TrEMBL record:
Protein name, as recorded: HAD-IB family hydrolase
NCBIfam families attached to this UniProt entry: HAD-SF-IB (TIGR01488), HAD-SF-IB-hyp1 (TIGR01490)
Pfam family, one: HAD
Family in the record: Belongs to the HAD-like hydrolase superfamily. SerB family.
Alphabetized InterPro entries for the sequence: HAD-like_SerB, HAD-like_sf, HAD_hydro_SerB1, HAD_sf
Keyword annotations from UniProtKB, A to Z: Hydrolase, Magnesium, Metal-binding
GO molecular function: hydrolase activity
Source species of the chain: Streptomyces roseoverticillatus
């Protein structure tokens, strides 16, 4: 029996050109004004900032957030520079080869699900938002899926799928993706992050340019 290799893709600035959490935050806040300016996702511990981000949705019906994610993605998709085309091409190539394609991100399921459906990705590894008995978000998550947690989540999936890490692939754009890239046999660096570029040059990793563009409406096969 042949086991399907797995191809893991970071999302922000790897598959899409923007930072989905920040873009969705601004889109959401325009519809749901708050009295105070939300904290920026810079300058503090990334895991705590990630948790703080999700707390802004406490009390929101989960179904409402899912609907908002689809609406946001529909608007974002029309941006002529929305996608990182070489990475999207790579994902399509893995699909054509029969590989399992997986999005790995600290972003929201509500934002990632329409993207995954659009690109035909098989799985999503992201933070799980807790929901109360009334179907409302508590504002808490199980744990942020950033940095080393991406690699841990990928390892669990590869083990469950029976895939050998040396047969698998990973794509990332930022030095925080390094643990994920190191967890597979074929890492690929998207864009020009200096830390990842240094590793790519030294270790012979694949490098893809961060060329941006739009996808046609009939992009998904």
């Amino acid at each position: 029996m042949t086991t399907r290799p797995v191809a893991f893709f970071d999302v922000d600035e790897t598959l899409i050109s923007g930072k989905s959490m920040l873009l969705f935050r601004d889109w959401w806040d325009a519809l749901h004004p708050r009295g105070e300016r939300p904290c920026a996702l810079e300058g503090k511990d990334r895991s705590e900032l990630n948790r703080a981000y999700y707390r802004r949705f406490a009390g929101v019906p989960a179904a409402e957030l899912q609907s908002a994610g689809r609406a946001w993605y529909g608007a974002y998709r029309s941006d002529p520079r929305a996608f990182v085309l070489p990475a999207v091409t790579a994902l399509r190539r893995h699909r054509a080869l029969g590989h399992l394609t997986v999005l790995v991100s600290g972003s929201l399921w509500a934002v990632l699900a329409p993207l995954a459906a659009d690109l035909g990705a098989d799985r999503i590894l992201c933070a799980s938002q807790r929901i109360d008995d009334d179907g409302r978000l508590t504002g808490e998550i199980v744990r942020p899926v950033i940095g080393p947690v991406k690699a841990e989540a990928a390892a669990v999936l590869m083990a469950a799928a029976g895939a050998a890490p040396e047969d698998c692939f990973a794509y990332g754009d930022h030095e925080s993706d390094l643990p994920l890239l190191r967890s597979v046999g074929t890492p690929a660096v998207v864009g020009g992050d200096p830390v990842l570029t240094q590793h790519a040059v030294r270790e012979g990793w694949l490098r893809l340019p961060a060329e941006t563009g739009a996808l046609p409406l009939a992009a998904v096969g």
